[in-house]
Protein: Crp/Fnr family transcriptional regulator
Organism: Chitinophaga flava
Amino acid sequence: MEFDQILNNISRYVLLTKEETDEFCSLLTVRRLKQKEYLLREGEICIYENYVNKGCLRTFSLDKAGTETNFYFAIENWWISDIHSRTYRVPSLCNIVAIEDTEVVQIAQTSLEQFLDKVPKLEHFFRILYQHSIAGHQLRLLQLLRLTAEERYLDFREKYPEFDKRIPQKQIASYLGLTPEFFSTVRTKVLRRS
């Protein structure tokens, strides 16, 4: 079944009845993206929570000079959205694009809110999901302020070994707050010691 992965992801924290599962699945749609295809563009209002069935996406913003800054990646079994745009129903300040061919399961924010009213125990799952997300973003911000470039890269490799293999180095550099050239030097130094 095309929704097995998302149901397994949710069942780590919440068990839905058969009726709840059937109703939840009726609210889901599958969207397939080709590499470099956008899930969300800056200026659009985000209306979906997205679960990654397969593939890899990145969230980035552009500054006035057109320089990209990556601040989130998502692979299989991860969730991705622009929570600010979705929550406040305002135009997105970021872009979400597929790094490789990707399949996401989507649920519209309005449908999700209505379902959460009917099945409050699912709110527990999303609370945990959002807590983990906020904690991760907070830690990342602190690491950008406190760790050296080499320490940030070592931490990245340790936490997300699959990212280092699937995400272009230029995008990892941006995520770590480094220029591609400096990142290349740091990466070479780390790999030599490995």
In short: DSSP finds nine helices and eight strands in the chain. The chain has two domains: 4-146, 147-194.
